[in-house]
Amino acid sequence: MPFSAPAPSHLAFVPFVSVQNMMALVHTIGIDTFLRELGEYLEADFKRWSEFDKTPRVAAHSAEGVIELMPTSDSSLYGFKYVNGHPKNMKEGLQTVTAFGMLADVASGYPVLLSEMTLLTALRTAATSAMAAKYLAPANAKTMAIIGNGAQSEFQAMAFREIVGIQALRLYDLDRAASEKCARNLSGQGFDITICKTSEEAVEGADIITTVTADKQCATILSDNMVGAGIHINAVGGDCPGKTELQRDILLRSTIFAEYPPQTRIEGEIQQLPEDHPVTELWQVINGEAKGRASDSQITLFDSVGFAIEDFSALRYVRDKLEATGLYEKLDMVADPDDPRDLFGMLQRSKGTDTP
Question: Does the keyword Repeat apply (predicted)?
Answer without folding.
Answer: no
